[in-house]
Amino acid sequence: MRLEHTTIPVNGINLHVVQAGDPTGIPVILLHGFPEFWYSWRNQIEPLVQAGFRLYMPDQRGYNLSDKPKDVAAYNMDILADDIIGLMDAIGIEQARIVAHDWGGAVAWWLANRNPERIAKLAVLNIPHHAAFSRALKTNPKQRRKSLYMAFFQLKGLAEFALKLGKGSLLARWAFGKDNPAFTPEDIEQYKVAWSQPGAITAMLNWYRAVRQHRPQSLNSPQIHVPVLLIWGKRDWAFDFSLAEDSIRLCDDGKLIMIDHASHWVQHEAAEPVNKVLIDWL
Fold first, then answer.
1. Is 102 one of the catalytic residues?
2. pTM (2 decimals)?
3. Fewest 10 Å CB contacts: which of 53, 87, 106, 222?
């Protein structure tokens, strides 16, 4: 499978973007989450390309080979969403289908809420709508416990030290689990290389820090008006399943697909069913 690695100036920074598929195909933007990078979609690339889609997979700001602004404010949600609008403008796409996981999904939810005219369809994997998550942090003790790591990530210096232990081995084990067959030793090495880029760990953590320090302006309504497919690995350790149900209720046209045997890393652990659902949906 031919992959095109490019650097695209977007919103005042340079984004590393991997492209694949027929340039005349239907455009799909795939957004990774923490602590991944474009490589998050390695199991989706060939099936989606064979289905006729043109894929654009950026390393989002702060990750891998993309620029890493030092100011925490540079990771405000509106700025992260502007990156994706800027990417679409740079490659000449008025409207795109977006597939997004984890933090990438948070950006996608926000974008669908703020700029629905730019999204034809949205597929989100294991990340709740921002309004559902905010509500759960206030009312759901189980979710508050699951989210304690986010508080630890606010500790500048200490969080960086912990995530760099063993040259990324601790981060890999904490995030992906011990001996998870969905992540080969070769995969883990790819992640470690991405995490070792200068300033990467702090930049990745700044996504979490910006949520507390630089909250975006509230939107008028949380309701999502674009078609949404929400794929959810039911064994997610980071988000309570109730948030998936709460999120889909905020969608005018929403569909929830549960994958019982998968965890937060649903596109890795259940690649075949995820790919089938995505192709049928997109």
1. yes
2. 0.97
3. 222
